[in-house]
Amino acid sequence: MKIFNGKHARNINGALVFKLSPVAAGCAVFLSALGTNVYAQDAAVSQAAQATDANGNPVSTVTVTGIRRGIEAAISIKKNSNSIVEAISAEDIGKLPDATVAESISRLPGVTAQRDKSSGRASAISVRGLSPDFNGTLLNGREQASAGDSRGVKFDLYPAEMLGTITIYKSPDASLMGQGIASTIDQRTVMPLDFGKRTVAVGYKAMRFGEHNNGLGTGTGYRSTLTYIDQFANRTIGVALGAVKFNDTGAEQFQADGWGGGAGSATYNGQAVKVPNGFKTDVQRDPQTNKGVMGILQFRPNKDFVTTVDLFHSKNTDNTKKTGLEGSVCGSTGSYDPNGVLTNATIVDGVATSGTCTNFKGDVRNHIEAVTDTLNSWGINSRLRREGWTVTGDIAGSKVTHDSNRYETTAGQPGDATNLSTISWTGYNGKDNLAPTYTTSLNYADRGQVVLTDHAGWGGGLTGNPQAGYVAVGTTTDEIKSYRLSAKHDMELGPLTAVEFGVNRTNRSKGRDQNEGNLVVGTGPYGSAPVPGTDVMVTPQSGIPVVAWNPLGSLGTVYQLLPKVDQPIQTDKNWDVSEKVSTGYLMGNLEGELFGLSYRGNIGAQYIHTNQSSTGTVVDTSKCAGVAGQACPAYVVRGHHSYNDFLPSMNLGFELPYDQMLRVGLGKTLSRTKMSDLRPGGGVSLNTSFHDGPILSGSAGNPNLEPFRAKALDLSWEKYFTVNGAKGYVAVAGFYKKLDTYVLTVPKTVDFATSGLLSAKTPLPASGPNAGSTVGILNTPVNGTGGNIKGIELTASLPFAMLSKYLSGFGVEVNHSSTLSSVNLLTTGLTVIDTGGVATIPLPGLSRQVTNLRLYYEAHGFRASIAAKHRSDFLGEISDFQDNNQLTFIRGNTTVDGQLTYEFGDKTMLKGLSLTAAVNNWTNSPFIRYAANPSEIAEKITFGRTYSLGASYKF
């Protein structure tokens, strides 16, 4: 496809290609072309008439309600923006289309969400095939702190009821701070002086979770909301208050882990046959609560001056409890777990489809992870307009504290037990360890036979320390403070209608503090203690009853702590990083005519200076065996690095006949790496299992890392229309991003003698090609060259009234995106689980195909909608059993939600009251992880449906 006839366009296999370097020169050439044929014009597009207050300020008026109100407001945001954006707008006060921000925006073109594998709710957001870390997330235009090691924001901390609009900027804008390569997601709260009168809205929704989920127990909960908006002192003072409370007792979820999906091996009648390798089945409950409070105060004494103070607080608690059984069927999981002997087997084509193995030592798991995330965000903004100038000052802060407590307990037979169990199975196919039905000779629900103990010698057996469980307690704190001063001056200078410039300073500090250790019971390596309580749980897949109990509060009563302070804990989980980012920007707004076509847009640039520093530890692994009770000697190290970036950008929108728009976005963007990657320090030890012989190997962070950088081209064609009073549009968008730099964790050959990581007492290789050498392999994140990512997005928002007035009230929203990337990452050095032996992996977060569909009807007080979301397979990120984020393959899925609302009309006594019924995850779509091959299931979690019934009242 040819884009333009100029020297910057070319054809390559029909793909959109544009010469992007140097970007600044390209923008200047384009601006010169615009200046040859321009005239001043009114840039405002047609809008609905607005009322004004005593000062002449606009006051929102509502001409439509419900679904149409939300759709048409979002269409107006998209149409009137100078950038390429997507938007979601509330259908009414406190009513985004979904209960969570992530669910709502994942319905937009090119946007998709990864579901939380504990709750099944949408959490992490990917835009245009890039992982959540590539998004900039704002609240009222200000950068927000994040809960985990990365920069990706948890949208669960932002209750949808507190937001009025969410805009996703897909093309860069010089006046926008905290941008990302993938997008910039700006969440906006309501502003009280934008409303014409006092408004109060209350709502309550009763909920049931996990319905029709294979006979598992359901959970109950509720969601209550309150919003109060008012104006005082002749509309010079405005107040908006909001509160949200959500409670979920947690439905039972079935989680099955097939140990990678591969087969085990055993000898039967002198031949090697395939047997089930192992399995892990859990029943999980995930009770959650969320409390959110919002307060906004506006003071506008006249039409030229306004000050806004906004406060936002949210607190999430999540207590995930798992009970289940795990074990190797015929093999061993530790020094106390002997290999089994296969008997009574039925062999078909080398596969033991049924059989019995002796010496089975099952591990009864009772784990709990309690997580609390607390967000506090605030801002003060003042704006003064005078004689064509607008001066704005803004100070703000955002802080997230992430507290976690993880208990893992094991129960079974002590290490010196002699009357070991047998395990039998039927229905094995040689591939799926979760397919068979299992039975055991030992009753794992009998507290007389099953005790709390180190059943398999996981702490090192007789030569190590007992490990009847594990505990990890940690806190991650992220705090951002920002200061901004900007000015805008209206003018008429060729194509320039206004010039805006300003400075912004952002100080960010983030740190993680983690303490871990073994849980010990009794005395000696075979110590044990009774399992408290009387509860029993049966996991659906194994069908084997097991003892169940809650280990919270058991430290100091049932268990004693044996601290573990080894190299990965000290270097990877204890660090502090700070950033000081200073940004100056200049942007001009454009209006004019080119080749007979009116256009509007902007051109500008940001100059960014970054000063980053970090603190970590270097561990002397020569004095540490890495086991509990033996601390690794360590000392504190610091890192520092500074660098500069110049980010030009341009957005142009050409107004075509028949209410069409052709948009072009061009610019350079960056996304900063995970803050945990910036930690200094690490450790090195002698690796005796290297394929070429012994060698020194280690791992470390990199305080000198610089951001991901990319050049971007965006094209969008949009057609808007109004038929029989209903608004709609269709759009086709294409994008190309050239990733100039990418952060990769790779094995580097280094001389540890000059790395600062090597101790004088660290043993060197005594044999092989590396004998006596200090040269070895260091796994560390580095800046490397990138690749590209490109795609196309198709969107339609169609009211059926355009076909016939008899279909008035019906409509459809549908979008589809197809995304490709040339980026392939080597798995070496990356924390990827279930690789299936593959050497390379795709770009994290990339689903090649994403489709969203929403059908709706709204008339006579009724509002009904059914929505489906589909994404294809992708590489996602989860938190593993060590509280580390790891990449994993996730199978694509389709989720379906439905909602029905009736709102009583103005002529009834119940005016303002609406009743709503909804169902989420209608098709009970599961969460499935796999090992490179989608047919090899590593973990499958089902959530069931969620039903809700609620009422809201507005007056």
From TrEMBL:
Signal peptide span: 1-40
Q: Where is the TonB-dependent receptor plug domain?
A: 79-180
Which organism was this protein described from? Massilia cellulosiltytica
Annotated Gene Ontology cellular components are: cell outer membrane
Gene3D superfamilies associated with the record: TonB-dependent receptor, beta-barrel domain, TonB-dependent receptor, plug domain
Q: Which UniProt keywords are present, listed alphabetically?
A: Cell outer membrane, Membrane, Receptor, Signal
- What are the subcellular locations of this protein? Cell outer membrane
Q: Endoplasmic reticulum as a keyword?
A: no
Name the family.
Answer: Belongs to the TonB-dependent receptor family.
**Per its record, how is this protein called by name?**
TonB-dependent receptor
Q: Does this entry carry the keyword Signal?
A: yes
